[in-house]
Amino acid sequence: MMEKVTTTVTTAGTTAPMTAKVSPAAKKTLLILNCILLSIGNCGGPLIMRLYFIHGGNRVWLSSFLETAGWPFIVVVLIILYFQRRAAGKNENNKKTTFIYMRPRLFFAVAFVGVITGFDDYLYAYGVARLPVSTSALIIASQLAFTAFFAYYLVKQKFTAYSVNAVVLLTVGAGVLALHTSSDRPEGETKKEYVMGFVLTVAAALLYGFILPLIELTYNKAKQAITYTLVLEIQMVMCLFATIFCTVGMIVNNDFKVIPREAREFELGETKYYIIMCFSALIWQCFFLGAIGVIFCASSLLSGIIIAVLLPVTEVLAVVFYKEKFQAEKGVALVLSLWGFASYFYGEYKFTKKSKDNNTISSQQSMELAQANYSSV
C-alpha cells in the first residue's frame, strides 16, 4: 500500500510526518477517539491499581507488569487491519499488501523507549502502592512541566501565549493540591515508606515527561510514512519491551510463585483478584494507546495537557470510590485545570482559523496571478 508523506504544522510550530490519505475530518475523529482512550486509562488506571493494593496486594513488579501487559490486544487489531488492507488491495489491481510497516531503524528506537517505559512503570507502581490516589495523581500532574521542558529541547516545541498559559494554570493547579498532602499518609505506613513513594512518583513524572517528547521525536526521525497502523505497531513494540523489562523484575522478585497464594488471600476473593488483573491490563493499554495516538494526531504537549487536566477527575473518583477527602484545594485545582484546557484549545482554534484564512488568501492571489498572466498572453 503506497502512502505519500506530507507534513503538518501544529500550533506549537513543530512539524510531524503525516500521510496524505488522512483527511482533516478523519484526523479530528481519530484525535477525539484517542482522547477518550487516554481519559479512560488516565482516570481508571490509578484507581484499579490502588484497588489491588488496598485489598491485600503488595507486588509492585506485578502492578508495573500489568501496565503494559495488554499489548496482545493490539496484535488482534493489527491482524484485522491487515486483512482489510489485503481486501482493499485485491480491488486495486492485486497490489501487494504490507504486513509489517516498521523498519529495523524504527524498531530499535521504539524498543529502547519501551525499556525506559518499563522502568517508569515500576516507579509509578511503587508510588501508587505507598500513596493515596489523590496524592500520587497530583504528583504525576507535574509531568506536564517536564513534558514542556523536554519538548522544547527534543522537538523544538514553540510555545504560543495560550499553550504557555495552559501549562502555567495546570502546574499551579497541581501546586494548589499539594497544600493538603502533609496529613494523608495511609494508616500503618511508615514515614520512610511514604517519603520513598513520594520521591519515586516524582521520578516517574519526570521520566514520563521525557518519554512523551521522545516518542514525538521518534515519529519525526523515523524516515518513513507515519500511518496510524504504524502507530499501533509502535505501541505494540513499546509495550512488549516494557513488559519484558517488568517480567525480568517479577522473576527476580519471585512474583510468579507468590501470585497464586496472594490470590487466595485477597480480601475481595480469588476470582475478583484475577478480574482486577485483567481489567488493569486493559485499562492501562487504553492509556498508552491514547497517549501515543494524541501525539500522532497533535503533539506530545497536548498529550501531557490532557493527562494533567484529568487530574481533578481522578481526584473526584478517588473521593467517590475510596472515600478520600475533597478539600477546597481540589475545587480550585479543578477550575484552574478546566481554564488551562480551554486556553489551549482556544489557541488551537485561533491557529487553525488563521491558517485557513492564509490559505484562502494565497489561493486567491494565485488565481489572480494566473488570470493576469493569461490576459497578458
SSE blueprint and pairings:
Blueprint: E1 5-9, E2 15-19, H1 24-54, H2 60-66, H3 72-90, H4 104-130, H5 133-140, H6 143-154, H7 161-177, H8 191-220, H9 228-252, H10 255-265, H11 270-297, H12 300-309, H13 311-322, H14 328-376
Antiparallel strand pairs: 1-2
Helix pairs in contact: 1-11, 1-13, 2-4, 2-9, 3-9, 4-8, 4-9, 5-13, 6-8, 6-12, 7-14, 8-11, 8-12, 9-11, 10-11, 11-12, 12-14, 13-14
Q: Termini distance?
A: 43 Å
List the uncertain runs: 1-20
Look at the helices and sheets and give the structural class: mainly alpha
Radius of gyration: 23 Å
Strand order of the largest sheet: 1-2
Q: How many beta-strand runs? A: 2
Keywords:
377 residues; globular
